[in-house]
Amino acid sequence: MMPILLITFSRTLILISLILVVRSPLLTETLFIQPVLMFPYLRNKKIASILLALDTKIELNNRINAELEAMVKTLYDYWFVQFDFPFDFAQGKPFDFASCPEQCRRKGKPDANGKPYKSFGGKMVYNPTLKREIPAGWSAKPLSSITNVSNDSLNPADTPDKAFKYFSIPVFDETNIYGIEQGRTIGSNKFKVKETDLLVSKLNPWFNRVIYAMDEEDQICSTEFVVWRSPSTGINNFLYHIATSPQFIVHCTQSATGTSNSHKRVNPNVMMRFLQPFNREIVELFGQIVEHVLKQVIVNQRANTELTSLRDWLLPMLVNG
Questions:
Q1: Does the first or last residue of the chain, that is N or C, have fewer Cβ atoms within 10 Å of its Cβ?
Q2: Are residues 312 and 181 in contact, defined by beta-carbon separation less than 8 angstroms?
Q3: For residues 276 and 179, what is the distance between their CA atoms, to the nearest angstrom?
């Protein structure tokens, strides 16, 4: 009996040491709630190494995304808050990035001919609508005059066997991506989603649920989203930063109404009244520069969703067998 007890105790110590390596609260909690059924040491070690690799990759993707998002936000603030977008004063027009090397275009950094507009004395004029100065030639535009709102819908039940990529509030909150569901399981009309769409939630707008749609077929979304269908990819990329800006969140939050604090909605018409300094040429230029960054962020987010799902599937195997 004693050798068996020693072997069991030894395996328990091995499992605990693996838990400390993986550092997973879920795994630690599971250890003390469920009976401990030991795997052979080598198999446990392999699973633990896979879990560690998954956690490392997820953390790396999160760090990359944080840096990419910070970089784009900084560029947005320079161009549309401080109005220091690159301007060719000799030519009297925004700097032409097509004239500079590829690296310069991708980073949004002009050569010596492109100067920060406001900092180098670019003309500013007072806009009574916005109650502040904006660059000459710019205007104050509501979102409704920058992008359309699409109400193009379908009933998934009409094609019961089709697999839809369905953006719903609960699934997005949990995974940052759509769920795949057959038409027969989706109960009512949904909005169609296309590549140049932004999905902006009208429910509890302080949570700022904004989805940047990618080029995929059979995408639909809940009617809790307002579908911004932009006239171009460049404008779509610009609007993503509007939709995630603190000013827009405050606008929607203050306008939201409802019978309870847990379920308040902003009227889409009110949402689209949000005013923004606008110059189409500058907006399109900005959108072209940041497009590859935004799409990489989405790719990393979706990769993390898959990695997290795989990790959560493997965790119980380390304990339960």
A1: N
A2: no
A3: 33
In terms of DSSP H, where are the helices of the chain? 2-22, 25-33, 41-80, 102-107, 169-175, 233-243, 246-255, 268-271, 280-320
pLDDT at 232: 93
Q: What are phi and psi of 75, to 5 degrees?
A: -65, -45
Q: 206 and 254: one domain?
A: yes
> Residues 118-169: pLDDT tens digits?
999 999 999 999 999 999 999 999 999 999 999 999 999 999 999 999 999 9
Give dist(CA 187, CA 220) in Å, integer.
Answer: 13
Residue-wise pLDDT tens digits, 287-319 = 999 999 999 999 999 899 889 888 888 887 766
Residues 242 and 254 in one domain: yes
Half-sphere exposure of 299 (CA within 13 A, CB side): 9
Q: Residue 113's pLDDT is what?
A: 64
What's the rounded Cα separation, in Å, for the pair 146 and 200? 15
Indicate whether 21 and 122 sit together in one domain: yes
Give the domain range for residue 157: 141-276
Beta-strand pair 219-221/163-167: parallel
The chain-wide mean pLDDT, for the chain, equals: 84
Nearest by Cα to 227 from 181, 275, 252, 192: 192
What CATH number does the domain containing 166 carry?
3.90.220.20
Q: Is 41 helix (H, G, I), strand (E, B) or coil?
A: helix
Residues 84 and 98 in one domain: yes
Task: Determine the number of helices (DSSP H) and then strands (DSSP E) in the chain.
Answer: 9, 18
For the entire predicted model, the pTM comes to 0.78
The domain tally of the chain equals: 2
271 and 284 inside one domain: no
Kindly state whether residues 283 and 266 are assigned to the same domain.
no
Span 39-61, pLDDT tens digits? 466 777 787 888 889 999 999 99
Average pLDDT on 202-212 reads: 95
Helices (H), 142-261: 169-175, 233-243, 246-255
Is residue 149 domain-shared with residue 186, that is, in the same domain?
yes
